[in-house]
Specification:
Oligomer: single chain
Largest sheet: 6 strands, mixed
Structural class: alpha+beta
Helix content: 25-40%
């Protein structure tokens, strides 16, 4: 076996062990939550977001439904992934529970937590979420991730996209958060 091949195998093994270690550390936070816990955390996340962001509050009043993921855990060492559970609210009532899962490969190391809320603005976006076997964000209804730059150009009269997403509460030792490519699937709670 050549030195290059042994080095590659050692590096691959180290990455795999590191990913297993990070997953073991993050696993307690990502365990399946009860419906009551998801609802409690979702209430708090939505209240905090709409209180602190005027445009989120305006969007919330016009949304047909709100998909709330109050706590996503992301970890990676070469290979990475994220997981969290959330709730779909329509008219203030919980109508379904969902998980958000993503995977990635590349230059990454660390772990973090964050949450996100997606305001579904029309019946077709809500129908797509309900009828799909898993919605990969970025495919299907148009989702605009609202950051400070986007928020400056939005008002309650200019809302024309299918969905608006807000990412919040980022904590940890991993740079950047993206929800594009996350797969949202219905779960039982």
């Amino acid at each position: 076996m050549t030195l290059l091949r042994r080095t590659f195998l050692a590096y691959t093994f180290a990455i795999a062990l590191g990913a297993i270690g990070l997953t073991a550390i993050a696993a307690p936070a990502a365990q399946a939550a009860s419906a009551a816990n998801i609802n409690k955390d979702a209430d708090q996340a939505l209240a905090t977001l709409t209180k602190n962001h005027e445009i989120a509050s305006a969007i919330a009043t016009k949304a047909r439904a709100v998909l709330i993921f109050p706590n996503i855990v992301k970890a990676g060492l070469g290979f990475g992934g994220s997981y969290g559970e959330g709730v779909l609210r329509e008219g203030g009532k919980s109508t379904g529970y969902y998980n958000s899962v993503s995977g990635s490969f590349g230059l990454q190391i660390g772990a973090q937590t964050y949450g996100y809320i997606v305001f579904l603005m029309n019946d077709s976006a809500v129908k797509f979420l309900r009828e799909s076997k898993g919605w990969e964000i970025g495919v299907g209804p148009t989702v605009v991730v609202v950051n400070e730059g986007v928020a400056k150009n939005l008002s309650s009269t200019t809302l024309q996209d299918d969905a608006y997403a807000f990412i919040f509460g980022q904590q940890g030792l991993m740079a950047g958060v993206s929800i594009e490519g996350s797969k949202v699937s219905r779960i039982e709670r």
